[in-house]
Amino acid sequence: MAEAVAAESQVDDGTTTRNGKGEWTPRVVASGSPLFSRPWRLSPKAAAKALFGWNGYLWPVRTIDAGLAILTWWLLQPGAGIWAGQAGPLASLTELRPGWILLMYARNVALLLLIAGGWHLRLYYRRAQGSRFKYTSRWPATNSKAFLFGNQVWDNMFWSLTSGAMVWTLYEALMMWAYARGWLPWIGFASNPVWFVALFLLLPIWNDIHFYFVHRLTHWKPFYRAAHYLHHRNINVGPWSGMAMHPIEHLLYLSRWLIFLVLPAHPIHMLYVMQRTGLGPATGHAGFDQVVVHTPSDTRMSIDSFYHYLHHRYFECNYGNNLLPLDRWLGTLHDGTEAGVELLKKRRKLPREADGVV
């Protein structure tokens, strides 16, 4: 679904207000969903918009995530859904065997190709809207020693589809195996429908908390030098840069499944969390604020990746996602303004920007 936005109603149409470095700033970024940052000030209409409006708490991201997890369980998960035998779901996964694990890996690679590849195809390969609504006028590097093969996109795809998809699959396979053996607390919709649905609403909060504190840890100098530097070579981000990380960082970043060791849930909820962790970075690193989906009517879809783009631009800020206001609460917010840059400089000396790495 997209929002129709009349071009004449916009102060900036995504092309005209770039600075001397070719950077475009769409607006001051928000600090968390209104549901968490100022719930006491919300009118019923504003609360409904924060819940159900575009880029609200429920629509479209979390609704699509939940639908994808359910679809995966019923159609794409070995040993479950239509693939379950007479013994029940996951009964065939009590032994760790290469066959079903490789099928899960192929599924996750296909999902990455669909999501990250789809954004890249439209915005970077076809350049369907040029640099309109792109945060920087630069494009991914094609001749840089900073990246494998000298090519930023090929480098990012390599790390995403090998280390990223492998670690993601390994964690999911271990969890499915543990569920199959009855080692983890498992609830179903029939036995506990309220808790089953509530988890879809609560787990995004866990995602944000985990991401913020793990991300802060990866900026600890020893870890940064050992692993996180690889991800931050992408100052000019693109969809494939989201999961382009060092294998050590993948082990940490993708560890959100740990909550299910103690939390009663269904394997669908584990897929819900892990797929958001593996696929969400493609949109968060898209490098565009809006996607023009129909040129004649100027119909646009807001993907709003500016919050995390600022992190790649300035490094020591915006460690979280733009749901919980953790960056504001903990003093690491950069709102995209010049005043925000000055505040960031005062709080911590900025790392030297690698001008040659684009």
Describe this structure in words.
By secondary structure, the chain is mainly alpha-helical. The longest helix is centred in the middle third of the chain and has 29 residues, at 152-180. The two termini are 32 Å apart. It has helices spanning 34-37, 44-52, 61-76, 98-125, 152-180, 193-218, 221-232, 247-253, 267-284, 306-314, 326-329, 338-347, and strands at 3-4, 290-294, 299-302. Strand 2 (290-294) and strand 3 form a beta hairpin. It has one domain (89-347). The radius of gyration is 21 Å and the shape is globular. It is built from 12 helices and 3 strands.
Features:
single chain, 48% helix, mainly alpha, disordered C terminus, disordered N terminus, three-stranded antiparallel β-sheet, 3 strands, 358 residues
Which of globular, elongated, flat, extended, rod-shaped describes the shape?
globular
Q: Which secondary-structure class do the elements indicate?
A: mainly alpha
Main β-sheet description: 3 strands, antiparallel
Number of strands: 3
Order of helices and strands: EHHHHHHHHHEEHHH
User: What's the tally of helices?
Assistant: 12
Termini separation comes to 32 Å
Average pLDDT taken over every residue: 88
Strand content: under 5%
Q: Would you identify the regions where 5 or more consecutive residues have pLDDT less than 50?
A: 1-11, 352-358
Question: How many domains, in number, for the residues?
Answer: 1
Helix content: 40-55%
